[in-house]
Design brief:
The termini are close together. The chain has a single domain, classed as TIM Barrel, CATH 3.20.20.30. The radius of gyration is 19 Å and the shape is globular. By secondary structure, it is of the alpha/beta class. Helix 1 packs parallel to helix 9, helix 2 packs parallel to helix 3 and helix 3 crosses helix 5. The protein contains nine helices and 13 strands.
């Protein structure tokens, strides 16, 4: 089981020294990877519903410092030597497809093969309009075509692509990524996310707390995995070829123990509860779990990371 934690791309801890300190501490403590999130620009008036809160309100809001995801990932790569970096998740339609392929290949090469590409189609229409993407309603198709174009550029000596959103031929794309291929984790819990995972994902990467598609108990999560396996087989792929990853937004003690239909909610309670939940997911075949361990200050964040290592990870 690989355990990861988050590195900041927004908020009070985004000064260079804090990001570097959190990343190097994660590497020293033995975390397998850090995650970095993706928003380019946040409108001040958001009508879109955020998928992971009951209210639909975007928790971090607009009025905070915010770094670009892939530049932050490269900064972390330069400050570490073993730590993997997971984009959690990259909103694929925010960047032009060929530029996306080049940025990710460069990151993988310069990090010596430490990139895991978590992807999503995005949820905030107002941000799409501010960035100037293709139409928001077409974001799923844009995501899929971009990933197909990336894989063509990453793997072929004479890459060619003729799609609706991207076309190229007679081009040279070098260097190729170190990893062949860069692993793609598909974020999301909805039907389209599951179908996307089944079609070409290397791992499914849900968050448990989506009110519309909750994966917050073992029973609910098992049902999601069963559906994924069915869709993967229907897509003509071996269900065992798609790994299982899981993202948790909180740290121990952040939420009191809760239950749904008489079953305890995953990752509520204290350190012992978290360790037990990780073991239960491991028994179901989950190979990676990551946590948001941020505190209000750098010192509090480092303390959360150390306590998690001592009281949760060390007990596994």
């Amino acid at each position: 089981m690989q355990i990861g934690c988050s590195a900041p791309t927004s908020g009070a801890l985004t000064d260079p020294d804090s990001i570097a300190r959190i990343a190097t501490e994660a590497e020293m403590l033995g975390f397998a990877y850090v995650t970095v999130s993706d928003h380019i620009i946040i409108p001040t008036d958001i009508g879109s519903r955020y998928p992971y809160t009951d209210s639909g309100e975007f928790p971090s809001g607009a009025l905070v410092d915010r770094h670009e995801q892939l530049m932050t990932a490269m900064f972390i790569a330069a400050k570490t030597s073993k730590l993997r970096i997971v984009t959690s998740v990259m909103v694929v339609p925010h960047r032009p497809p060929v530029l996306t392929a080049k940025l990710l290949a460069t990151l993988d090469v310069l990090s010596k093969g430490r990139l895991t590409l978590g992807i999503g189609a995005g949820w905030m229409q107002e941000e799409f309009e501010a960035v100037g993407t293709p139409p928001f309603a077409e974001r799923g198709a844009v995501t899929d075509e971009t990933m197909m174009a990336c894989r063509e550029l990453w793997s072929k000596d004479d890459p060619r692509f003729d799609g609706k959103y991207v076309k190229f031929s007679n081009v040279v794309f070098q260097p190729k990524p170190v990893q062949r291929p860069i692993p793609i984790w598909i974020g999301g819990e909805s039907g389209p996310a599951l179908r996307r995972t089944a079609a070409y994902g290397d791992a499914w990467y849900p968050i448990g707390t989506n009110p519309a598609h909750p994966m917050d108990t073992l029973t609910r999560y098992q049902a999601g995995v069963a559906r994924l396996r069915m869709l993967t087989e229907k897509a003509g792929r071996d269900p065992a070829s798609v790994a299982l990853s899981y993202r948790v937004s909180s740290n121990p003690e952040a939420q009191p123990k809760g239950s749904v239909d008489g079953e305890r909610k995953l990752f509520t309670g204290g350190a012992a509860d978290f360790a037990g939940d990780i073991r239960s997911l491991r028994d179901l075949g989950v190979t990676s779990v990551d946590f948001g361990l941020f505190g209000p200050t750098l010192a509090a964040t480092l303390d959360n990371m150390r306590r998690f290592h001592d009281e949760v990870a060390a007990k596994l």
